[in-house]
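Re: that chain you flagged

S.,

Sorry for the slow reply, it's been a week of failed gels. I finally had a moment to sit down with the sequence you sent. For the record, here it is as I used it:
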Amino acid sequence: MASCILCGETGAFRPRGAKGGYSIEECPACGLVQLVPTPTAETLRALYEGDTYFDGEAGTGYSEYEDQEQEYLATFREDVRRIRQYIPSGRILEVGCGYGYFLQAALDAGYDAYGIDLSPAAVKWAAMRHPGRVFRGLLEEVPEIQDQQYDVIFGSHLIEHLTDPGDLLATASRLLKPGGLMVLVTPNIKSLLSRVSGSRWVSFKIPEHVSYYDPGTITTLLNRNGYTVRTVDSAYQYYALPFISTRVRELLDPVSRLVPPIERLGWLRKRKLRVTSGSMRVIASRD
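Prediction finished late last night. Pasting the structure tokens below so you have them in one place:
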């Protein structure tokens, strides 16, 4: 029997689809959409700690992550600009830092930035670029950060991976200064792109994305864990045109086979575009 990750409701959920051996279902009590059954913490941790997570193998993880450094830097600069509107300077901790692209954007903007991740390969890569600033483990596990206080804790495409997000938010609250910010970027199940894409939505990454929030459910989650939501807005990403074209062709297949691959033209190949991935950015303050 399913148990809601957000409100704990058990019983019959509303079917929303199926993929990768899991059912995608909606809680009738609070509206959270999640995988049924819930993947185990051991299954997920083994996935993130594997050598291929940042190679996008078998539809999981991130494809072309290293090659898209400039696109990720441009994306994270937007997050840093939004953070600056609330906290113009200070100490930032990123949970799930990957190769350290957000850390680079934050450091360039003058913040004292640190990061943690479960991937040994990612931590090795990021630590070479940012010595003494990157550590491996879960938020509650890393000894180097337990006695620190941060102005901002940032998690991009993090909260949807967690089977118990309340644990992370409780630990984050302890590490945040009074009035500090929790900033999350996560797929929005009610976004236009999600509704148009249906079962082909790019954020249906199974089993790593265990839950799918919308502005209402993410606000409920944060409120229940001692945060006040300041704003929820659309989050955009930068991608090279060929990458976008590939994803659009996958979404529209087989009709897309009739469209000539104009992105192969030399002058378009390196063109970068700011596009929506159907995600939202949530900024909340610790009560």
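What I noticed first: The first helix runs from residue 41 to 48.

Talk soon,
D.
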